[in-house]
């Protein structure tokens, strides 16, 4: 297992980010309960965190769970945590339910962050940034091409500064169709490319940004236009 050491933005301390260790499981779950999207955490998260990793970038079963500490802190407990896995939409969206091969592919090229949280008195010290950066790096090395997450509108600037594009509706371009990710307030969808072939564009006929290039070897034609969420033949 590797660990990331990241300079904190507002202090001389450094941040160590490592996979969750068994003694920290209860503290990690408590932290993730503070996440703005904590309600999305799977009900079986406690069981998941006791499993061996299924494949990279996962650290526990079908999930990636990392914790963060300030290196010079006298408190041995983690100050932040992130939990990520394959996206729900890769298996549950109507566009993929009848196409198990496409569902399996999307589950391998996209990672969804279900929760990222920092202890209240440790916020503003770069911990969330360090957690997300390490999660993205691990996903990128494992072949993931896109990371998605949900957040409240007041965090839009924070995620924009980390390279995310946020909207209430995001479309992922697929052959002949658009896979729409729609959120009602107070949550927004944020997306970030992890591969140079993946881009986030504004296109006529869509209610928000469009992710193109997610499927390896397939991209939208230059003159493509959406019509009610579909790509005309």
Automatic annotation (TrEMBL):
N-acetyltransferase domain segment(s): 53-186
Alphabetized CDD domains for the sequence: NAT_SF
Superkingdom as given in the UniProt entry: Bacteria
InterPro entries named among the record's database cross-references: Acyl_CoA_acyltransferase (IPR016181), GNAT_dom (IPR000182)
GO function terms (MF aspect): acyltransferase activity, transferring groups other than amino-acyl groups
Cross-referenced Gene3D superfamilies: 3.40.630.30
The name this protein goes by in its record: N-acetyltransferase
Native organism: Streptomyces xinghaiensis
Record lineage: Bacteria, Bacillati, Actinomycetota, Actinomycetes, Kitasatosporales
